[in-house]
Amino acid sequence: VTPPRPPNLRTRYVEADGKVAQLLPFPWSEHRISEKLRKLGHERAGKIRTIEKMKNIGRIYTTKTISYSRRITVLAIMMSIGFLSLWYRAGYLQIWQFDESLKAAEQTHLRRVRSLPPRGLITDRYGFALDPHLSVGLREPLHFVHRLPSNEVKGRLRLTGEVLADNRSSYQIIYPQKRTEIPSALCKKGESADLQRQRQALMQVLKNASPSLQVVASAKQGAWLNNAQTTVAGNPTASFFNIDEEILAVIAQRAPDFLLLAPPKRVYARIAPHVIGYIGKMDESIFQRLKTEDYTKNDIIGRTGLEEAYESYLRGRPGWRLVEVNVYEQVVKTYSQPSDYLSFPQRGALVVSTLDAALQRKAEELLADKVGAIIALDPRNGEVLAMASKPDFDPNLFIDSLDQNTWNRIITDPDHPLQNRAIAGQYPLGSAFKIVTGTAGLETGAISPQEFISCPGYFSLKGKRFRCWRERGHGKVNFYEAMRNSCNVYFYKLSLRRAMGPDILHHYATKLGLGQLTGIDISGEKRGFIPSSRDIPEKGRRWGAADTVNMSIGQGNVLVTPLQVANMMALIAVGKNYKPHLVKKIELVTGDIEVIQPEPLHTLNISAKTLNLLRQSLRAVVNNYGTGALARLPDVVVAGKTGTAETSSGEPHAWFTGYAPFTNPEIVVAIIVEHGVSGGKAAAPLAKEMFQTYFENKRNRGETLLARKDGSD
Description:
Elements lengths: L10 E6 L2 E7 L4 H10 L9 E5 L3 H40 L1 H9 L1 E8 L6 E2 L26 H17 L26 H16 L2 H17 L17 H10 L18 H4 L2 E3 L2 H7 L9 E3 L2 H5 L1 H4 L4 E8 L4 E4 L6 E3 L6 E4 L3 H10 L5 E6 L6 E7 L13 H8 L9 H4 L9 H11 L8 E3 L2 E4 L2 E4 L7 E3 L1 H7 L2 H8 L6 H10 L33 H8 L9 H13 L1 E3 L4 E5 L5 E3 L4 E4 L4 H16 L15 E7 L7 E8 L6 E7 L5 H22 L13
Parallel strand pairs: 5-11
Antiparallel strand pairs: 1-2, 1-3, 4-8, 6-7, 8-9, 8-10, 11-19, 12-13, 12-24, 14-17, 15-16, 18-21, 19-20, 22-23, 23-24
């Protein structure tokens, strides 16, 4: 019923919250209107719009009712149309288009999968495998492409976990990216969501496995979690199982959507780890350098030693094969026939090293309880026969990911087991440097072979005494006797003569190969340091006579590597030397053989008279009751030189370097025993063992010695 309206009454009605809110008398103020609307429940009453007009009150209320009803009706119609459309579409697909939809779901297509080749082997010079393969299942890298509903995923994982647990296998699995809730215990601050999902996926496998497997897994869980990676469609991520082929077959049967292949794997024989090196996953910087050479981030590559240096030969060439996947990216069929390969993987080459495994083992045995290095090489061509550095490391630790605790323990070890002391250890040479000082003195004419110098047991220089190792002195000695007995005073006085000095010593040390890189074919070699009057470590200090005296016997700032010392002795033994190398030949899968040719390095440009006297003196060191007598062999003539290098700790390093036989030398040895105190007592006996092993093995192989004890051919 329309209320009566006074004629010609001027009214105001108000819109609030988008609708007509209240009919109010015109005289009311804006403030009073707002207060009234708030009492009526309109929170937005402050934002009002007033309209002034003459209007029939009943018509206003009728308009409001019609407006609300119309909106509800329109909304209901629109929702009904939407639901009807969805119902019709579902019915159309499930009833009228059922056959066509089923065919589409069953359609498959081919996808190519990268197929990695077996890695090449490294052997010693006689064919002994230094890095044998471990058979782990099939012949290809283990991959899987996996796209399944979550309920099926859990079932697959449970079955896989049961198989692994029953067989007490340790494993690492890399699961495809899934959007799942991440347990807070696995999330680290700042981690990406992808890595968190990867961790969660891996833990899902562990959770579905039996308790016995979980115990095994928890011991290595940290390393596994850190190595989880995401599968990219078309380029599946490798996953490594250290399990038997039979177990892989069971998993393949129970989980046919997994594409199972076997990874390239090494198990090192724990021989020459610094030389052979190890393989492992590449980091981002290496990948950026190699990505143009057909590598992927998941490839295993050589990281150190020969594995790194000859990676291009050992890795082989990847191939491509076909797999069949459905619309869900499930692998429904694998192809392994020759005709199914787009390109065949080509196994890596056989790298035949120069090492003699028996001699290498002997070197490592001799250093078992010591810190130091032993090098043996053939002076006729630069082939390294043995290279041992102690302490060493287990290269098998680096194949899979190394846990942080183990890594920290290795890198903080004060004995630095990762350092190859043979090529990177830099030591004062001690008395073996007298070879340099003596050669310089004879060649410059600073002294003649028969000139005698008196040794009272010390040498005084500006009030300071430089002592000989023999306190009572050697009396009057010439070059031959001074070298045989390693008389310090003789070389002190020789170094200060007019024709001598630090720059002459530097020149001849460099001429003999000290303080220079040899160019050996593995990385990590250090240069050492040979000082001169213009180049001393202490900046701002001038060279003094005391520096020359110290340098004359290999002390002061002299630093050399064992490899440089061995190459210096090779130069003296045969008059020239070659770039040291660790590979003899490379046998390619094509049948071709690349033979590594000796590369000349230095020729000893000194007079025949000086060279002959030097050699005879070195022979006397070992055979005529010299300081190296403990290196003497009963049936082969050995020449060499001892060295005892003072250190800041007060315990000198022990050196011996020498060659044999004296005529037609076949082997050169350089040995450093850190803090061995005496070269003649600590290093010379080890050299004897090395020479003896070499010649005994040669006899056992039926080879004839080129020189007898009397020096005759």
